[in-house]
Amino acid sequence: MMGAGRGHDMPTLRTSARKVPAKAKPAKRIVQTLNVNAPGKAYPRDADTYEAARKAFLKALPKSGPGVTQPEMMDLMKQAPPAREWGTAQGR
Predict the structure, then answer these.
(1) Rounded CA separation 77/86 (Å)
(2) What is the per-residue pLDDT for 72?
(3) 25-35 per-residue burial string, b: 16 or more CB within 10 A, e: under 16
(4) What's the rounded Cα separation, in Å, for the pair 20 and 16?
(5) Per-residue tens of pLDDT for the chain, all 92 residues
(6) Rounded-to-5 percentages of helix, strand, coil across the chain
(7) Partners of 44 in the beta sheet?
(8) Strands (E), the chain
(9) What does the pLDDT read at residue 91?
(10) Given CB 3.0 to 4.6 Å as the disulfide criterion, which of 9, 15, 41, 86 pairs with 53?
(11) Do the beta carbons of residue 29 and residue 47 sit within 8 Å?
(12) CB atoms < 10 A from the CB of 21, how many?
């Protein structure tokens, strides 16, 4: 008997330790936004989200007149398309 009872009669299967490469994600477009309260400081933001929020903001602004205050602007943006379409005020 050839190694009966010790498992020598079964072929050994070896598995490869190689990892399957993940599919490459397309590179995100990034824009640098400026903060008027911190001159010279730039913050990286997702370009698609930024552009969608910018369009919503420009659409909400009055066409003429002196403009809006920050609290008025926040109220106008609450009436804009849902944040799920363009992100949140925290840049996410």
Answers:
(1) 11
(2) 92
(3) eeeeeeeeeee
(4) 10
(5) 555 555 556 555 565 566 766 777 778 899 999 988 899 999 999 998 888 888 888 888 888 988 899 899 889 888 877 666 655 554 44
(6) 30, 10, 60
(7) 32
(8) 30-34, 42-46
(9) 43
(10) 86
(11) yes
(12) 6
For residue 79 the two structure tokens come to: 């009436």
Q: Which residues have CB under 8 Å from 6's CB, separation 6+? A: none
What residues contact 32, with CB distance under 8 A and at least 6 apart? Answer: 42, 43, 44, 45
Q: How many CB atoms lie within 10 A of CB 36?
A: 6
pLDDT for residue 14: 60
Tokens for 54, please give them.
């910018």
What's the rounded Cα separation, in Å, for the pair 32 and 50? 10
Question: Could you give the CA distance from residue 81 to residue 79 in angstroms, rounded to a whole number?
Answer: 7
